[in-house]
Amino acid sequence: MAFNWKTFRTRSGTAVIFVLVMMAGLLWNHWSFFLLFSVIHFGCWYEYQKLTAGFEPDYAGITPFHRFGVMLAGYALMLFLSGDQLALGGLSLHSLGWWMGLLFFFFLPIIELLFARRIQPKNIKASFLGILYISLSWGLLLDLRCIDAVWTRANGSPFELGKVLPLAIIFSIWINDTMAYIVGSLIGKTPLSVISPKKTWEGTIGGIILSVVVMGLIARGFGFPIVDACIIAAIAAITGTIGDLLESKLKRMAGVKDSGSFMPGHGGFLDRFDSLLFATPFVWIYVRAFMEGW
């Protein structure tokens, strides 16, 4: 097959813009991180609802109050999980999320009863799963970003744990994906799952191992605790792979190739962040359970 330069330029240009926007949002400050993942939050919700309607036709008929109300209810959860560093005047986003959550908890069911032609438990279940899948994950990632602990390197220079943790998860997933593709291309023979036929056990295991090794080396170079870095990399690589398979399953059920088209040549929000969505809660559990002493 002839090399398609037009497609290559489109994918390359989109990838460069994506990386620049991501790094600016991740590294600038708490607010840039919050705004970046606010956009990602609603983008993921839009695609999740579209995918769900693809294999649950009744879900396509939910009322606008349900459609947008559940997005905002999920956003309230995300705000609630933010730290005290994010405040507008004297009101923290944490408090704002609490009051928004109470409002939606009382009024969404009432509005659904008044305006829905009939109450469908499976539609409510799908929306609730969306809150767990999308809003809870981004809320927990925001919570990690708002950790104000400072770690001091061996040379005496400090770094913010809250800035490092999201980067550690993202880099672990990127390294795992890249290495899994390379190893799978070279020696992969055993299919991992019928959901994603191109993935192999050899590539998957190789990607996880190399992700742990590379993140351990990076941690050593930057003075980050190597054991914690390796454990976070292993958790992110393993659960991120599961998250990728889960999103592939949703797309297969909906009969689509990509979840969306916001990135020409690369798919949609869920295509880009499926691994991070699934990995974040598990890394959060590790950090809060075993790294609280920082």
Characteristic key phrases:
single chain, 294 residues, mainly alpha, two-stranded antiparallel sheet, globular
The helix/strand series, from N terminus to C terminus, equals HHHEEHHEEHEEHHH
Poorly predicted tracts of residues:
none
The gyration radius over C-alpha positions equals 20 Å
Mean pLDDT: 86
Instruction: Assign the structural class, choosing from mainly alpha, mainly beta, alpha/beta, alpha+beta, or little secondary structure.
Output: mainly alpha
Biggest sheet features = 2 strands, antiparallel
- The residue fraction in helices comes out at over 70%
Count of beta strands: 6
- How far apart, in Å, are the first and last alpha carbons? 54 Å
Task: Please give the count of helices.
Answer: 9
Strand order of the largest sheet: 1-2
How would you summarize what this structure contains?
This protein is mainly alpha-helical and 294 residues long. The chain is 73% helix and 6% strand.
Give structural notes:
With 294 residues, the chain is mainly alpha-helical. Helix content is 73%, strand content 6%. It has helices at 5-27, 30-55, 64-80, 93-115, 121-145, 161-187, 201-222, 226-254, 269-290, and strands at residues 87-88, 91-92, 150-152, 158-160, 191-193, 196-200. A two-stranded antiparallel sheet has the order 1-2. A two-stranded antiparallel sheet has the order 3-4. The chain has a two-stranded antiparallel sheet with strand order 5-6. It is globular, with a radius of gyration of 20 Å. The protein starts with a helix and ends with a helix.
